[in-house]
Design goal:
293 residues, alpha/beta, D-Maltodextrin-Binding Protein, domain 2, 3 domains, 13 strands
Amino acid sequence: MELRHLRYFTAVAESLSFSRASEALGIAQPPLSQQIKALETELNVQLFNRSTHPIQLTIAGQIFLQEARAILLQLDQATRTTQQVDRGYLGKLTLGIHNSFANSHLPGLVAQFHQQFPDVRLEFREVTVVQELELLQNHQIDVVFHRSPAIYQDGMTFNCLPLLEEEFVLVLPENHPLTARAIVPLTDLKGESLILPDLDVLPFYRQVINACRQSGFEPRLDLSIRSGGLITLLSLVATGLGLSVMPAHTQILNRQGVVHRPIQGLQLKRHITLLWRKNEDSPVLNNFIKFFE
């Protein structure tokens, strides 16, 4: 028995006419009648009562019609599902994100992708700079919104798509004297207490320290935040414990008690990129990357 036998039988059963069924199927009536007869022989049952006009389904034929319809429907669903998976319209994608992800325009772009590909299940996993590449390498995430620079290990190979670059600004308590300046020279930070993320967690911030040294002073690092959380940093600055240098996007948080100012003499930018494994054959991932190109 082949699938065509089920289609032939269903066409005849629904029209109760060999002539109309043959016309709908695009085959001659004699071969169609032969195929139905061969099906009855294989099943060892009579599916149609041919003595009436129009022909009628036997009780066995009625049951077989229900089963044949279910099989053909399941086949159609399997075909559509397979095609959707092959085209990247159905599947799952695990995204690595940092705790600052929500404070940017990137969630809006991901939402647009989800609207365009509603049957792709998106899973979000919050990662740190230290662990993101290992998780990517070990297939625990499929793609990561990466903040440069990365902590690479031997044998790691990734594709990279630049998305945006972001400048850094000075964050001060709202009552700090330096808020009177529209732009704060880096040299004015001499003697000020700086609150920075732990350098083992976010080694990128070593560039801030190096910039201070190149400007002729050693920064005061009285506090550090092991988690590297920007919300915590903002809260500490708001209490007056010190100043900090943060990505410009933190301004959209509208944190009360702090003021943001550009820093003259600090040429520091952070690049946001998409990273994914090389030679990855995933239609869903390919669509995600193309969406951001």
